[in-house]
């Protein structure tokens, strides 16, 4: 016998693909070596000030971590080892293995889809087939037999992502059930024999049980084969009772029909009702179930959505502890019995869901009343009465059969199958698939036959008559088009476009002047008969255009019922911006006086004016008429397009639109207003966080329509003061007048003035009774753009510019900004109306939050801030999250922190604790892209050689900076908004260090998104719902704020 100290060393468990079994053995092995705490908790982070004892302990932990890594490396084969060599610690290796081999198929597919969606958003072309192949290649080894089964039984080229997820989920649930079930029968049949009597017993069946055994080993206690077996612990796999096997079961079970009807009765928990819905077969897309335990409307049919935002991602938990991925959020249009179309909003798209769920709680939030009585559920509205009565089914469910509107008029053309269905003039999908699978034509993508039926096809084929048999003199040629049969050449169809869609034709340089548009908006008619070009129709000029340089927008059609006003800008010598003037008749062109001059018919000077071309003077733009020679053509196309033009939100005639320009010296933005009687055109700087409109009357300004607000007036704010003036009366100088604080955020001082009301002219509309602050001093104008006479505040206050215009004209409380990036181009300010598109079509939105502590220079304790803040959760550079203290993104008790939007800050300003790690992460990613770093140029820190940077449609090709917002939304900053050229061939990151918050300070934001980041982004502020809609950089869509005729989305 050996010594007591000699024992067998435990062998290192080798990883064989079964992670659950290996992780248990490996954890036990590492615990025996006293290394498990290192793997579980990690080494720890070394602080700035540590003692010698702490350093010694940290070195010991690092040594243990190296030993633990050594054991893990020995337990893993080389192919897997190569994937984890980049991990620094044993904890990272363990977490990586756990994430790869223990992650569920649903989570892995969701993570893969999230990565692919980001790649698609950044311009990478990835088809569904590529994503399916990637998922199948990279699944864990335990899914190998599932992958083999899918590849053998299904066509990978036609397999959709939803079908793949469903197949993987079914196999995974089957594996979980098989691993959790106890093999009771196998355990019960195992013989329990003694080694002393092995092979000696001869007892057989009843004889052994009757005799009770003998001394030859045939006893019940010592012989397994002759022992009477105890079946009390044996479970029957048929009735699931104990005491007998399945073959011995005579229990009468209910039929399948009875079992289905009683399934819900056996599960009384309300949350399990959702699980029942998820497990049933999806019979009809039009069936919705009213569910009180469902938190949101949900649908598993993608074709039911009239609008779907696929950027939205979330998960839903069911009563059976299963989790389903939510792949989008949108609206479902339904048709009522009277033929009207209603919309179910905020519906979650869950592909794994087999039934449509109508949330009772969400209906209650919308103001509907739900009543359960007499075996029915009544849904009623306070104004329209009872909307629906849902009778209870036998299994105590409330199914509501409603018709989904699946017409191609209600949805955007994004599915390539539907797109080519329209391009081919509603050709049958099976016919399209034959063209694609047999390779009869080139240019066709993968065609998937949808379950949705095109209503236009139904209407068009109602009067179809049978083709007379035997009348055709020729026979059909299999899988060959007539063109190929005749010319032996296979036709190409990739040039097909939808008839009647929007197209932008390029205008050659020789046919336009410097300030003319580079493209004209037209309607697609087809292909020219005389050349290889497209034939287009321009409804504004009433002419046929033939062009090869065309950009198509197949999701939109021409708005034949809307007006197309001509916008004329006065080109003054001082490069001032004049208001937009709507001109519907061509003979005369209005000329605006320069800033500071009064409008007078006798003193008006002639200046260079952009006029309507002479060839357009034959038409009346207001009545949309044309010359007699082409009137019949126009009316034909008018009737054609009215049949299928989708409804587009029109700009209301009472809305206000102002041009915006950028000052090259200060990088601030300004517009011009016409104020007073007579009208004075003055330049006004735009302040997104300003509380009101104020201007200076220090020059020769005077107005006969100006009325000061008395101190005792109800229009005088309670927080104001009473002011007086010893100088002659003029706007801004009067006695017993309501005082007004003149705030310029670029100055440390605060000035005072008078509050008065005067006449305002905006977009050729006169607004009387507009309240504004007026001062006779020029001191508040310091640091503003040249010749600027004041500030237009857009904050959420009662005296702000958009609030007053909306209230005085009964318009919605909303406004939109589109800031230009160049001093030579114009942006837009929309007040009271959405911009080029309705907000429902915006891909990105986030709530506007309120800082509970005021950030104004003068405020009363307890006042909240009136500036605009958004909730930023994190910052990342090319997907890598920047590490900093996340509490900086929230407000503290003094109002410090958070993220603010500002047009008075030229460049985005960051707290030092955010700025430094962001710059480090950006420089690291830039180095990976071979960008050469050069010497810094104040106030910027990270500068690069422009020659080492590539170009893209979003400006310079640099690392993308993303701000993660609420509801999984991302504000992405590309090169056009993140890099500024400071000198020749030198560009810098357009972010500056805002320092740290001084002790005792309040209302200091951690992140201030400046004007350079906001420019060329469409921003819509809906003050009613307190929400911000944004487009991200318009350059990604080949658009800009200066081209108002281009549809942004």
Question: What characteristics describe this protein?
Answer:
alpha+beta; five-stranded mixed beta sheet; 1049 residues; nucleic acid binding; 50 strands; Cathepsin D, subunit A, domain 1; disordered C terminus; six-stranded mixed barrel; 23% strand; disordered N terminus; globular
- From the N-terminal CA to the C-terminal CA, the straight-line distance is 85 Å
- Shape designation: globular
How much is the radius of gyration in Å? 37 Å
**Strand order, sheet with most strands:** 22-23-30-24-29-28
User: For the report, how would you describe the main beta sheet?
Assistant: 6 strands, mixed, barrel
The average pLDDT value, as a whole number, equals 76
- Say which CATH homologous superfamily of the domain at 845-1037 is assigned: Acid Proteases
CATH uppermost class of the domain at 845-1037: Mainly Beta
Low-confidence segments, given as residue ranges, are 1-7, 181-227, 255-283, 405-413, 563-653, 1044-1049
Helix content: 10-25%
CATH topology of the domain at 845-1037: Cathepsin D, subunit A, domain 1
Give the number of DSSP strands. Answer: 50
What is the correct CATH architecture of the domain at 845-1037?
Answer: Beta Barrel
Strand content: 15-25%
Q: Structural class from helices and strands?
A: alpha+beta
Helical run tally: 23
């Amino acid at each position: 016998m050996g010594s007591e100290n000699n024992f067998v060393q435990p062998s290192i468990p080798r990883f064989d693909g079964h992670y659950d079994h290996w992780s248990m053995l490996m954890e036990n092995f590492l615990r025996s070596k006293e290394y498990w705490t290192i793997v579980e908790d990690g080494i720890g982070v070394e602080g700035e000030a540590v003692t010698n004892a702490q350093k010694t302990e940290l070195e010991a932990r690092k040594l243990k971590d190296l030993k633990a890594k050594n054991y893990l490396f020995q337990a893993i084969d080389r192919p897997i080892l190569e994937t984890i060599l980049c991990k620094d610690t044993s904890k990272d290796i363990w977490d990586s293995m756990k994430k790869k081999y223990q992650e569920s198929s649903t989570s892995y597919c969701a993570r893969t889809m999230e990565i692919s969606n980001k790649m698609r958003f950044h311009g990478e072309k990835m088809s569904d087939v590529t994503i399916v192949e990637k998922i199948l290649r990279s699944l864990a080894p335990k899914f190998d037999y599932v992958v083999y089964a899918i590849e053998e039984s299904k066509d990978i080229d036609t397999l959709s992502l939803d079908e793949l997820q469903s197949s993987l989920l079914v196999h995974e649930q089957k594996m979980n059930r098989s691993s959790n079930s106890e093999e009771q029968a196998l355990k019960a049949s195992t013989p329990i024999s003694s080694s002393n009597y092995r092979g000696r017993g001869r007892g057989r069946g009843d004889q052994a049980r009757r005799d009770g055994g003998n001394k030859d080993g045939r006893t019940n206690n010592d012989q397994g084969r002759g022992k009477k077996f105890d079946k009390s612990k044996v479970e029957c796999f048929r009735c699931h009772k104990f005491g007998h096997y399945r073959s011995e079961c005579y229990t009468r079970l209910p039929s399948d029909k009875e079992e289905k009807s009683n399934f819900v009765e056996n599960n009384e928990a309300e949350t399990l009702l959702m699980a029942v819905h998820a497990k049933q077969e999806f019979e009809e897309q039009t069936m919705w179930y009213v569910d009180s335990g469902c938190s949101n409307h949900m649908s598993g049919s993608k074709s039911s959505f009239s609008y779907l935002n696929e950027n939205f991602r979330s998960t839903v938990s069911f009563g059976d502890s299963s989790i389903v991925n939510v792949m989008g959020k949108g609206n479902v249009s339904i048709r009522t019995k009277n033929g009207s179309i209603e919309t179910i909003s905020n519906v979650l798209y869950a592909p794994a869901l087999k039934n449509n769920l109508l949330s009772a709680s969400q209906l209650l939030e919308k103001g509907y009343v739900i009543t359960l009585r007499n075996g029915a559920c009544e849904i009623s509205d306070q104004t329209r009465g009872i909307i629906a009565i849902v009778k209870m089914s036998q299994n105590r469910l409330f199914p509501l059969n409603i018709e989904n509107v699946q017409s191609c008029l209600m949805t955007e053309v994004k599915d390539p199958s539907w797109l080519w269905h329209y391009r081919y003039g509603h050709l049958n999908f099976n016919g399209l698939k034959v063209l694609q699978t047999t390779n009869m034509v080139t240019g066709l993508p993968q065609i998937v036959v949808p379950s949705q039926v095109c209503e236009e096809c139904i209407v068009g084929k109602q009067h179809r008559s049978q083709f007379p048999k035997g009348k055709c003199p020729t026979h059909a040629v299999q899988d060959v088009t007539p063109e190929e049969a005749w010319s032996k050449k296979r036709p190409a169809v990739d040039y097909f476009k939808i008839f009647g869609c929007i197209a932008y034709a390029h205008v050659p340089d020789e046919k336009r002047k410097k300030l003319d548009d580079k493209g004209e908006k037209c309607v697609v008619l087809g292909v020219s008969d005389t050349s290889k070009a497209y034939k287009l129709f321009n409804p504004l000029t009433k002419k046929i255009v033939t062009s090869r340089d065309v950009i198509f927008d197949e999701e939109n059609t021409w708005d034949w019922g809307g007006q197309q006003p001509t916008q004329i800008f006065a080109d003054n010598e001082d490069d001032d911006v004049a208001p937009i003037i709507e001109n519907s008749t061509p003979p005369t062109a209005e000329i605006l006086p320069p800033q500071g001059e009064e409008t007078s018919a006798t003193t008006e000077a002639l200046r260079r004016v952009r006029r309507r071309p002479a060839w357009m003077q034959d038409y009346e733009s207001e009545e949309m008429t044309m010359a007699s020679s082409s009137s019949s053509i126009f009316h034909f196309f008018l009737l054609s397009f009215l049949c299928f033009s989708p409804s587009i939100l029109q700009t209301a005639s009472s809305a206000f639109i102002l041009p915006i320009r950028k000052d090259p010296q200060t990088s601030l933005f300004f517009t011009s207003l016409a104020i007073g009687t007579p009208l004075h055109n003055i330049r006004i700087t735009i302040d997104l966080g300003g509380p009101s409109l104020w201007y200076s009357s220090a020059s020769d300004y005077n107005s006969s329509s100006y009325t000061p607000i008395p101190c005792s007036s109800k229009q005088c704010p309670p927080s104001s003061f009473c002011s007086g003036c010893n100088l002659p009366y003029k706007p801004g100088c009067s006695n017993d007048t309501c005082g007004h604080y003149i705030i310029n955020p670029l100055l440390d001082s605060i000035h005072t003035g008078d509050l008065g009301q005067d006449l305002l002219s905006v977009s050729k509309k006169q607004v009387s009774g507009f309240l504004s602050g007026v001062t006779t001093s020029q001191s508040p104008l310091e640091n503003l753009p040249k010749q600027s006479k004041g500030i237009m505040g857009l904050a959420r206050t009662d005296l702000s510019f958009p609030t007053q215009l909306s209230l005085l004209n009964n318009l919605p409380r909303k406004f939109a900004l589109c800031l230009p990036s160049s001093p030579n181009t114009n942006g837009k300010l929309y007040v009271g109306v959405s911009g080029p598109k309705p907000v429902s079509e915006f891909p990105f939105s986030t709530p506007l939050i309120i800082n509970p502590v005021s950030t104004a220079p003068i405020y009363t304790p307890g006042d909240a801030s009136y500036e605009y803040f958004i909730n930023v959760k994190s910052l990342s550079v090319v997907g890598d999250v920047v590490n900093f203290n996340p509490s900086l993104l929230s407000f503290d008790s003094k109002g410090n922190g958070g993220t603010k939007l500002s047009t008075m800050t030229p460049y985005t300003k960051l707290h030092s604790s955010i700025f430094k790690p962001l710059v480090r992460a950006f420089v690291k990613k830039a180095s990976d892209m071979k960008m050469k770093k050069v010497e810094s140029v104040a106030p910027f820190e990270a500068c690069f050689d422009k020659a080492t940077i590539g170009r893209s449609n979003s400006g310079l090709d640099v690392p993308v900076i993303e701000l993660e917002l609420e509801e999984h939304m991302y504000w992405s900053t590309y090169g056009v908004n993140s890099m500024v050229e400071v000198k020749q061939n030198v560009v810098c990151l357009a972010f500056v260090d805002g320092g740290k918050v001084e002790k005792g300070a309040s209302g200091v934001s951690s992140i201030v998104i400046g004007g350079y980041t906001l420019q060329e982004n469409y921003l819509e502020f809906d003050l009613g719902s307190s929400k911000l809609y944004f487009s991200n950089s318009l350059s990604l869509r080949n658009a800009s704020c200066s081209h108002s005729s281009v549809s942004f989305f």
